[in-house]
Amino acid sequence: MKLFLVAGEPSGDRLGAALMAGLKSLTQVEFHGIGGPAMQAQGLVSQFPMAELSIMGLVEVLPKYLHLKRRIAETAQAVTALGPAALITIDSPDFGLRVARQVRAANAAQRTIHYVAPSVWAWRPHRAAKMAQVIDHVLALLPFEPPYMPAAGMTCDFVGHPVVAEPQATEPERHLMDGPHPLILALPGSRRSEVTRLAPVIGQTLALIKARHPQVRVALPTGPHIAGLVRDLTRDWPVQPQIIEDAVTKRAAFAAADVALAASGTVSLELAAAGTPMVIAYDMHPLTLWLTQRALRIDTVTLVNLVSETRVVPEFIG
Q: pTM to 2 decimals?
């Protein structure tokens, strides 16, 4: 069986890798598509670097529009030429659903699956009906999402989030980040655009913390695709962070941290699984923020708050 998978950012890459691992345990499958390091480790040869797609925000996308448009067309052509059993788009709907639309225009019978339900309960509820024009089935991460999909014309299964199955720090690993002073996790995001905007804000916050706790330590887990950028952006921080790129030390840091300053996203679920207290933040372009605030139907964007039906995690969106 041939499958074509399309992921557009690191969180989708991790979802795709978990999906690939599960599928390989069930059947003989051949993977094609676009993905990052995690999916490539499962055997995917990416059609082009996934990092080209990791852009967040309307204003941030505009300079890349023509390039992204070409990539959409190239990807759709590759899907049509392959004729897979299914096209599976993973999150990143702005890219993936445009690919699906072009694929369906070329082959109306192509089976399509979207992994990560659109957050129609949060904003732009019409998106589900629009998605149903090109998507047959949805795989939902959150338990309250499936009822929203059939009304729009798509079947849906709740599959949960693979973060709950990811390994936590072992007892020996827990001591790798031990130290006499408080440890703060800095997590400015996984996309270049969000790291560029949020890293200075976290740096300013650390200056305030250091004034009260001069010996505070900072750890910053990140991916190899943005590690260089992270080093550049943190060079002037009042506390130089320990940059972490490996999974073992990341688990140790999550277990040892006293608190995390984190970008909004899947990482809040990882922190919750590790039992790490957190403060969530996100810094958008003013126009993107204005458009988002006008469309939002909920008073929190933090996944831990949504899943727990509480507002236990403080968030600062601006």
A: 0.78
